[in-house]
Structures are given as structure tokens and as C-alpha cells.
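Morning!

This is the sequence you dropped in the shared folder:
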Amino acid sequence: MTVTFDQGTPQFEIKTQAGTHFLKDPSGIPVDLAGSAGLEIVMRGFRGDMSNYNGVVSIASNGPRLLQVYKIGDFEGVVTWAIGLSAPSCASVTVGATSLSFQFIAAPA
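The structure's back. C-alpha cells below.
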């Protein structure tokens, strides 16, 4: 999965979780994604007075590991993506001049 920006790349954090149940930010509305394991990508440093992403909210994938991507937050300068995965996974990230590329790999046992 690659995310491209107009300029530079934001600070980001990756959070793994056992399931695919997420909550939208800031509403708390539940979202359940395809798969059995999940991951959140939290990106910071955007403008807080506007929407920072205006594209598709949910994207399905044929896997084998990545099954679904869903934007669960764009609030106060923080954009959050929920990731539905077929199995517990880690993310390997390649940072480009204006992109972040995430490759999802099997989590160590």
C-alpha cells in the first residue's frame, strides 16, 4: 500500500491489534473490516481546520495478506487508516520524498 502526498511525508505510527474491529475518530462509530488481524496507521502533522483526504474511504484487496483499507479518521490534523489483514502482521515501511509505502509481512511467532 502506497500513500502519496503533495509535499514531504508526515510523522506516522503503526499500531497492531488482534482483530479487525475499529472505531472511527472522533465519532466512535464501529467499523469491522475483512480479515482476522488488524493494524492502524496514524499520520500526524496535517492541517486541523480542513479535511486532508478526499478520496475513496474503503478499498478492498485480493490479498493474500492485505484484505481491506478504511479511512477511520481525519480530525484535528490526524489522519488514521485501519487495515484488515488475513493474519497477524508487521509493516515494513519505505519512506520516499513524497510517499510512504507499506508492505505487510508475517508477524514473528
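Headline: The two ends are 24 Å apart (CA to CA).

More detail when I'm at my desk.
O.
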